[in-house]
Amino acid sequence: MQHNAQEPHASLPGVVFAAGESPLFALDDSVRILQRKPIGHYRVPTYLRGKVGTVVQIITPIGIDNEEEGFGRDAGVKLHYYRIAIPMSELWPEYSGSPRDGLRVEVYETWLERI
Amino acid sequence: MTETRALVERLPNDIGGVKSAPIQQVEHELLPWEKRCHALADVLDFHKIINTEEKRRGVEALGAEMVNALSYYERWIVAFANILFQRRVLTPTEVARKMDEVAARSDDISQAAKA
Amino acid sequence: MHESNEHGHPHAEISHTERPGYYEIMETAVRELLVEKQLIGAGEIRRQIEVLDSRTPALGAKIVARAWLDPDFKARLLKNGRAGCEELGISFYDDTGLIVLENTEKVHNLIVCTLCSCYPRPVLGLPPDWYKLKPYRSRAVSEPRAVLAEFGTIIPDDVEIRVSDSTSMVRYLVLPRRPEGTEGFTEEQLAALVTRDAMIGVIPANSPAAENAP
């Protein structure tokens, strides 16, 4: 298993990638973390819901949705996680530190929308 | 919307950004059983009997009262027992009987040590 | 200092001649039943304890010191943290990846896991209790400067703070800034300045002066 901190490779013409192998989002994309409220299990903390950030890294390898993995599903559809940069001022309106301060967090593909 | 909805939607471990006390830099050397419990978690994940995500879900499923009152590895071992029951790997009766046996065995050892 | 739970009150001291506590009995019962059913081997638990015992902040310190000395290694480490560690003979016994976060004059990194206790265990060992408790987990993402100040670390306003909240398959390791006055230091001398807390990002690496102070 390879763990890369780099952009996944583009496909060679004629080579078909399996479902989920091609990331839906690209570096520098502006994205919103969805305002969804799953019950039972999730790995997107409440404080991130509805917040806007930027894709700074596409995480490989692809992985199973941890909301499903949490109930013992060890195989199935795999998608990308994305490392998202979010300014602290976006998360906490009353943030008193430097306006440059920010958060980085990995978010699963099904939780993001392009804006 | 009822007052109880938040209890369902927000898992007990989802605490990012919640008001909290100053940090006390506490740490302790793990007790032997705590280290065994950690090793057990890793081995259960290696075999995908309980994967790491399911362990996290099992801890959340204990509910806020137990999450707040039990120590770290106390939460883990109770969660493991529950998940193993759900997966029909173990039964509550088996664990209850085995716990009685382990307790009786250690009583014998401490009696012998005193004699 | 003994185990503290979320409320911070200590549990009773356990004497070795007393019968084991309720949760220890539960741990023994569950483990023995799994071994009896041949779902796991007793030897696997012993082996994994050896694995855990072999992982300490000294490994992370070695990685940091090597990165300070070898720019090519540092570049590979920043590109793929797990491969960089594996290059030094430090295996990843789980499915996690590693991103190494470099502190610079302009950026200070801090790691936390708000949802549980994700931590770069293969290279730092098991996390300290405070890392797993509510005050650090809840506040590191919303008031990192106040949290750092409680560790005695004051970051100037013109330095950007980046907090990485670890939630899934990636773990983080902070590569602290190399302290002043360490020109000509060997890898071992440099590694001695790198603490666990510096690799979490709550303090800088020790300066040689502080290290030599009585």
Automatic annotation (TrEMBL), chain B:
Highest taxon above the source species: Bacteria
Record-annotated Nitrile hydratase beta subunit-like N-terminal domain positions: 12-107
Protein name (database record): Nitrile hydratase beta subunit-like N-terminal domain-containing protein
Source organism (scientific name): Rhodanobacter spathiphylli B39
From TrEMBL, chain C:
Keywords, alphabetical: Iron, Metal-binding
GO function terms (MF aspect): catalytic activity; transition metal ion binding
InterPro entries: CN_Hdrase_a/SCN_Hdrase_g_sf, CN_Hdrtase_a/SCN_Hdrlase_g, CN_Hdrtase_asu/SCN_Hdrlase_gsu
Keyword Magnesium: no
Binding site for Fe(3+): C113, C116, S117, C118
Domain of life: Bacteria
Domain Nitrile hydratase alpha/Thiocyanate hydrolase gamma: 23-202
Keyword Transferase: no
A Pfam family recorded for this sequence: NHase_alpha
Family per similarity comment: Belongs to the nitrile hydratase subunit alpha family.
Name this polypeptide is given: Nitrile hydratase
